[in-house]
Amino acid sequence: MSVNSTPAMQHGWTMRIANLAWPILIGQLATITNGVIDTIMTARYSAMDLAALGLGSSVYISIFVGLSGVLQALSPAIGQLFGARKFTEIGFEVRQGAWLAIFLSLLGAILLCIPGPLLAIAQPTAALNDKVVEYLQILALALPATLGFRVFTSLNTATSRPRMVMTIQVCALLLKIPLNYLFIFGGLGLPAFGTPGCAIATAVTAWATLITGWFIIRRGAHYKAFHIFGNGWGKPVWQAQAALLKLGVPMGLSYLIEVTAFTFMALFISRMGSDTLAGHQVTGNLGTVLYMLPLSIAHATGTLVAQEIGAGRLVQARHTGNAGIRLGVMLSVATGFIVWVLREEIIALYTPDAIVAAAAMPLFFFISFYQIFDAIQVGAAFVLRAYKVALIPTIMYAFAMWGVGLFGGYLLGFDIFGFTPTYLQGAAGFWMGNSFSLALVGMALLWYLKHIQHLFEKEAQLID
């Protein structure tokens, strides 16, 4: 069946995406604001603690994002089942996803409790190292809760109910703010923990969030059709675990590749001093916040594409995917322009330290410029995952982010060959390499998506 794309239909696809994306965006902003609050509060505690937060959070995010990325395999699986109206099979997928979250939590906790090999790359001082290790070991206690909540998030997003997730995430933020203040600066008989206090507040909030989410699943009328609890929780089914891992491992690796590119940026930049690292932390934190806009649109787009695929409407799936990528690009261009115009005011909100602000200022050019490429790559990647295609995109990420971005940034930042312009030496060189890698992988993923869309539609025509 051929479906012509008219302006009215394009508007309809865009509105469907926007209606699903806005609660995802608010929920993700609430989650990311936790990191912003950590950065702002820690910056006012001490420069040393801000540097420890920058280094520690880079390590934690690498581990967490890689593991939670594996769980993202639930989203296209549940989305396609929802589109096909195979509701009872959704409960089985949720149970298997919960088991997978438990297994991944054990692996992640071990890595967080023994962070020595990663921290050795940064060559931190003894005082900085001790703070980072304590921070990461406390976060090991939060990891099972954060991964468990990812299962809840995947279920609700894939079934077009992101507002429930958004509500819980906003409430979690409201809880995190006073807990952060209490544990960082001390009070009510508790000492001031500094950076480790952020981790304590995160752990308490994470477990409260998980308990709330699973209570809603247990009691909510909407979830009864999915038979999540069935006749009991049941044991892990290894065939189902293998199916999730087949899709989830490449997805997790792609997340890991993208995030570790930033992690190793932080590790290498830390060699340039605490002030340079703190400036990088401010810039990277804002970049993460900005990324939430195209990411939320990509989440919503991928959800709707997966539902269309499950329903057998492949042409509509293509149009929906293309509309989502266009929307993400347009909004990201506008966001980048606003950030560039207001860069001085934004940096002032992050830190009162003039040296840190001066270190961050030139880096704002990059987070303003690469927004368009970030929107393209994340939009194309999520639509490909809706088709359950992840392996080739992961290879593309590895080549671009590690081979071009990180290695190229290392050559520029440290002026290995002696011809790097002064304005690209130091942290700016790493940000230049990263920007170029995002442009490269964005174009590659967009080309590959067109190929996959054509392939799926052609196979469907042969079957008909």
Structure description:
By secondary structure, the chain is an all-alpha fold. The protein has one domain (7-463). Helix content is 82%, strand content 0%. Helix 6 packs parallel to helix 8, helix 9 (238-269) runs antiparallel to helix 17 and helix 15 (371-386) runs parallel beside helix 17 (427-463). It is globular.
Task: Please outline what is shown here.
The chain has helices at residues 7-43, 47-71, 74-83, 87-113, 116-122, 126-158, 162-185, 195-219, 238-269, 274-310, 314-341, 343-350, 354-360, 364-369, 371-386, 391-413, 427-463.
What is the overall silhouette?
Answer: globular
Low-confidence stretches: none
* Assembly level: single chain
What structural class do you assign from the helix and strand content? mainly alpha
Mean pLDDT: 86
Number of strands: 0
Termini separation comes to 10 Å
> Biggest sheet: strands, sense, closure?
none
Measured on Cα atoms, how large is the radius of gyration?
22 Å
* Number of separate helices: 17
Overall number of domains:
1
What is the N-to-C order of secondary-structure elements (H for helix, E for strand)? HHHHHHHHHHHHHHHHH
Please give the structural blueprint.
Elements: H1 7-43, H2 47-71, H3 74-83, H4 87-113, H5 116-122, H6 126-158, H7 162-185, H8 195-219, H9 238-269, H10 274-310, H11 314-341, H12 343-350, H13 354-360, H14 364-369, H15 371-386, H16 391-413, H17 427-463
Helix pairs in contact: 1-2, 1-7, 1-10, 1-11, 2-4, 2-6, 2-9, 2-10, 3-4, 3-6, 3-10, 4-6, 5-9, 6-7, 6-8, 7-8, 9-16, 9-17, 10-11, 10-13, 10-15, 11-15, 15-17, 16-17
